[in-house]
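Subject: Sanity check before I submit

Could someone independently write out the structure tokens for this chain? I want to compare against mine line by line before I put it in a report. The sequence has 383 residues.
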Amino acid sequence: MAMKRVAVSAFQALSSSSQSSSSLTRHLHASAGSKKIVGVFYKANDYAKLNPNFVGCAEGALGIRDWLESQGHQYIVTDDKEGPGCELEKHIHDLEVLITTPFHPAYVTAERIKRAKNLKLVLTAGIGSDHVDLNAAAAAGLTVAEVTGSNTVSVAEDELMRILILVRNFIPGHHQVINGDWNVAGIAYRAYDLEGKTVGTVGAGRIGKLLLQRLKPFNCNLLYHDRLKMEPELEKEIGAKFEEDLDAMLPKCDIVVINMPLTDKTRGMFDKEKIAKCKKGVLFVNNARGAIMDTQAVVDACSSGHIAGYSGDVWYPQPAPKDHPWRYMPNQAMTPHISGTTIDAQLRYADGVKDMLNRYFKGEDFPAQNYIVKEGELASQYR
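---
Independent answer below. Compare away.
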């Protein structure tokens, strides 16, 4: 609530400093004429040619270039987003709409917002807008929106895969094949069945619920911690038990899955002390955000064996530098940020971005669930 008050008061201060709020606040609805729209996506290079539906890369540009340019808009697409001389910086001063993704995020800092005098709308092609300084965006009167629900299935399926990979000790076995080895004992001594294990999700929003539903056929003990309790009918259908106290839930879990957004409250939440509350040999899956975990605490726990396996596709920062310690810690099954950018997900979030741009040009509101910042208010999950 304190964050909300700060954002709202700052927004109101901006609005009240002029006779007309429209002179300072950056309203959602577009003015007439050509717009400068900048998209920041990862570069695909030769892979871009291998699938016509590969629209989530810089070359694919969400498949909306022809549509935008046919309406007279300028559409700049780049993967170059860091440093004072990057391509994004060349357009900061006069872009009106910025489209970026969680997979190759353009970090929209307070300093960038201050210099982006014409910026009105920040769209996330996917889910998760924590690469934007949301307080600064709210104070400046920006609208921040994302394509809610576009890749929930993709991420939930990926989480289930990672759980199985860790439980069955798959990665060392795969490495044996690559290296020409054959040592069954080196795998079997720490390979288990998923059935009968206790899986707890920290966060049970759209992705968390889908994961729990997909875990039910494995006959696991399912726990969840969230700020909101599920509807009784759904909770009964899934067979999951609500745990109000996270610290009480963690010692019960064989597997902990992170499914909450990155906010001021959750940043660095799983530090040395929080991890110590988990049982020795716990497995972690984190496809939410890397900054929810204390980087060194995870490395230390994997090295000591307190965490028996850690898998995820989220890092901080992204792309992860070559010397990021998670690349080299033991018992990890990490990948680049891929879970929410399957081809199916790309088509969904590309359609969602096009729909919101179309609404923006027409002066129409977005679907309510897509707003992350609207009229100085942060969405509830970010407060």
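---
OP: Matches mine. For the report I'm noting this point. The first helix runs from residue 2 to 16.
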